[in-house]
Design brief:
Elements (H helix, E strand, L loop, with lengths): L2 H31 L6 H5 L5 H32 L7 H11 L5 H17 L4 H28 L1
C-alpha cells in the first residue's frame, strides 16, 4: 500500500470514528430533548429554562456537525477511496443516493435548508423555532441512518 493510500485509509477511519461519536451524541441529546414535541410555549420559556436551552443548543450544534461532517468530509473521502468522482455537494449526494447510502438527496437538502432557517430565525420567532426543531427531530432517524450506512461502507 502506498503512503498516499495509507494516509487516505487512516483519514477515512478517523472520519468514521468521529461520525460514530457525533451520531451517538446526537441520538442522546435528541432523546433527552424530545420526550414530547417542543411547544411554542416551551420555546418561549427557553431564556428562563437554562437546562432546556442548553439541550436545544446541543441538539442544533450536534445535528449541524453531523450533517456537515457527513456531507463535507466523510462522503467525499469515501467516494475518493472508492475511486468515484468527487464533485460539488449535490453531485456527491446524488452518488450517495445511487449507492443506497442516502434515500433522497432532496430530503437531505431540505434538512440542510431547515437547519439554516432554524439558525437564522432562532431568536426572532418562537413559533418558527419550535416548528424547525420538531421537524429536525423528525429527520434525526434519516441522518443517523445515513451515518450508519456510510460508516458501514468504510
Amino acid at each position: 500500500m502506498s503512503a498516499t493510500a495509507a494516509a487516505e485509509t487512516e483519514r477515512l477511519l478517523f472520519l468514521r470514528e468521529v461520525t460514530e461519536l457525533e451520531a451517538r451524541y446526537l441520538a442522546q441529546t435528541d432523546a433527552r430533548l424530545f420526550a414530547a414535541p417542543l411547544s411554542v410555549a416551551q420555546v418561549q420559556r427557553l431564556p428562563a429554562d437554562p437546562d432546556t436551552a442548553e439541550r436545544v443548543d446541543a441538539f442544533v450544534a450536534r445535528l449541524g456537525r453531523l450533517q456537515d461532517g457527513l456531507t463535507d468530509k466523510l462522503l467525499p473521502a469515501l467516494l475518493q477511496r472508492l475511486a468515484e468522482p468527487v464533485g460539488p455537494v449535490i453531485d456527491n449526494l446524488n452518488r450517495a443516493e445511487r449507492w443506497g447510502w442516502l434515500i433522497s438527496t432532496d430530503d437531505w437538502l431540505r434538512l440542510r435548508q431547515l437547519r439554516n432557517r432554524m439558525i437564522h430565525e432562532y431568536v426572532k420567532d418562537p413559533a418558527v423555532l419550535s416548528d424547525a426543531l420538531n421537524a429536525e427531530h423528525a429527520a434525526v432517524p434519516m441522518l443517523l441512518a445515513v451515518a450508519k450506512a456510510l460508516c458501514a461502507e468504510v
